[in-house]
């Protein structure tokens, strides 16, 4: 099928065309089967065509396909916000709004914090990814390809090192950089918010340092600064918990949601402390398609499936399988380029490095092709595109997961 009518500015990782999928398997238009370790880039924690989600979408489509909530409220939006407010593991009353995507959630969060604080400065982190819209581009902690050729971006935004055991940046180093920022670059009283991923996605599945997270929470409280947690990729069970911020022992003021919120239907949300969400004038938040009834139905079915027991079981089973195989590969020396394993729970990355410790980006490109030819779809991440991010559905059958890891092992052995 020709791509002539598709913008060439869209980068495609796998040059195939998919036809259909079921749970953790997909088939292309030639009939070839693949095991899916991409999951729509973290959208399909419940797999392709989850029966409960499909049935909910089908039923809703016979009742009401669309209504703009800010024109006339509809039941699926109201029901979903009630369910989400109970699903968010914080001790304060939760309010929120639905959006079309995670990036739109981030954009609205910026409006909310400006309205609540009267400040404009945002602090983000190196390696961050918060979206491709104009405002979220400036939050991203990476220039190429996202910020190239687009000119002056909305600001002001400053970046700090992201502290993680996975990248070698310590809590002390990040706090020192933060002290310098407020000593040299910006007055702390001008800062509206920090925005941070509890586990970086695009940045290479790096888990945030717990000590730093708690120090940051205290700093924000002391200086009347809001803390936004971007859970768009790490949320909805990816780490074995509802949300990744829970492992940090903190509560964010605002939380960004998206990706796996609705089983594959476009939907996002920004939720958090009710006074923050209520501070803008009437009409300051909203959107035509935001909280579409069909998307809400998919999200309600998703929440039905994501019980704490299910999330814990799915997360621990996948984590155990991945870590067991990874350590076996290290012990057996299956690949000279095999580096560290990053992330937490079922949100895991595998780093490819050269003998001198530099990123083995060329080998990762080779691995993507080898795996695809062998029937396994993988996704790169990291600043140098040298970290494999594993995003198989949480619901993947154990035998299919092992089959996928067998293919990965065989392809790692072939790297040169």
What this model shows, in words?
This protein has twelve helices and 15 strands. By secondary structure, the chain is α/β, with parallel strands linked by helices. The protein has two domains: 52-306, Type I PLP-dependent aspartate aminotransferase-like (Major domain) (Aspartate Aminotransferase, domain 2, 3-Layer(aba) Sandwich), CATH 3.40.640; 308-415, Aspartate Aminotransferase, domain 1 (Alpha-Beta Complex), CATH 3.90.1150.10. α2 packs antiparallel against α9 and α3 (75-87) packs parallel to α9.
List keywords for this structure.
4-stranded mixed β-sheet, 416 residues, 15 strands, Aspartate Aminotransferase, domain 1, alpha/beta
The name of the CATH architecture of the largest domain is 3-Layer(aba) Sandwich
Distance from first to last alpha carbon: 32 Å
Main beta-sheet annotation:
7 strands, mixed
Secondary structure class reads: alpha/beta
Summarize the model shown.
It holds the Pfam family Aminotran_3. The chain has 416 residues and is α/β, with parallel strands linked by helices. It is built from 12 helices and 15 strands.
Task: Outline the fold blueprint.
Blueprint: E1 18-22, E2 25-28, E3 33-36, H1 39-42, H2 51-61, H3 75-87, E4 94-99, H4 102-117, E5 121-125, H5 134-139, E6 157-160, H6 171-185, E7 191-196, H7 210-222, E8 226-230, E9 254-257, E10 268-273, H8 274-277, H9 293-305, H10 308-332, E11 338-344, E12 347-352, H11 361-374, E13 376-377, E14 379-381, E15 387-390, H12 398-414
Parallel strand pairs: 3-13, 5-6, 5-7, 7-8, 8-9
Antiparallel strand pairs: 1-2, 2-3, 4-10, 9-10, 11-12, 12-15, 14-15
Helix pairs in contact: 2-9, 3-9, 10-12, 11-12
Keywords: Aminotransferase, Pyridoxal phosphate, Transferase
Family: Belongs to the class-III pyridoxal-phosphate-dependent aminotransferase family.
Cofactor: pyridoxal 5'-phosphate
